[in-house]
Amino acid sequence: MTLKVYTSLLLLFLVNSVWTRTVRQVYDELDPEHWSHYTSECPRECFCPPSFPNALYCDNKGLKEIPAIPARIWYLYLQNNLIETVSEKPFVNATHLRWINLNKNKITNSGIESGVLSKLKRLLYLFLEDNELEEVPSPLPVGLEQLRLARNKISRIPEGVFSNLENLTMLDLHQNSLLDSALQSDTFQGLNNLMQLNIAKNSLKKMPLSIPANTLQLFLDNNSIEVIPENYFSAIPKVTFLRLNYNKLSDDGIPPNGFNVSSILDLQLSHNQLTKIPPINAQLEHLHLDHNKIKSVNGTQICPVSIAIAEDYGFYGNTPRLRYLRLDGNEIQPPIPLDIMICFRLLQAVVI
Fold it and tell me: Which cellular component, as a GO term, is one annotated location (predicted)?
């Protein structure tokens, strides 16, 4: 499982690198004679770099409105302005847009003209962080791959808003005003290829319902979650990175094998109310338990295989994979028990 995940991430990185390099090569080979043409089309409030003619930089200009976007533009940067409305008029010719950054403006839901976003058929990345949205805007472009809505005032997710977003791989809703009631059993229906879901810094008291099955990264830090339901992670069998820092989890709120999940490689439970280390899987590589109420550590009890097996050097196939263990901010007194080192032979760092 570990090899598959890392191989997939490496392949994704290489593909993106090759794509970026190829696009850049095309831009760098443009004939300087065409630069004046690109410059003449450029809105006077913005900057159009001759070496990157498909990009339009209108960020940090104090703009209150979106200027007319030339047809050639793929990448549009409008962050750090005073924009309140998103209307159809500026985008009439912008049929090739792939990327829009509208972070740090003053956009409200009422300021987004009905249907304007869904008409951007080729849009892949939409950034609307640090605005004044009170709900997820809809409808959205069906080809969208990343949607970033962090640090708004979102308390409502309209029914079916994600139902057609089969290409979405990343959804960021952190630091909003979401309650448990906003996340229904069908809220994330349709997100069949979602890899990262960030709902940190909201007002959740329960684990969200019906997380998409292909999710690899689930971030739920800074909520008020108290209980992990029995078999919760069986519905998301690929989850690899799980963050539950700064919640209200206690020993009673975690099922006996709640985190004994073979897919989880990085588990973060810092700043909760645990008094003991919950059972973990032998595949886990990073475990964060700092700033809980743990008083002691017993390697024999927490070892995912028996200590007798762990002592057998020839039994490498079942050796626990834990490499990083953080326990500072608890009530544990050094030294580290010997059975911890016997069990977790691959440990590279222990913070206590």
Answer: extracellular space
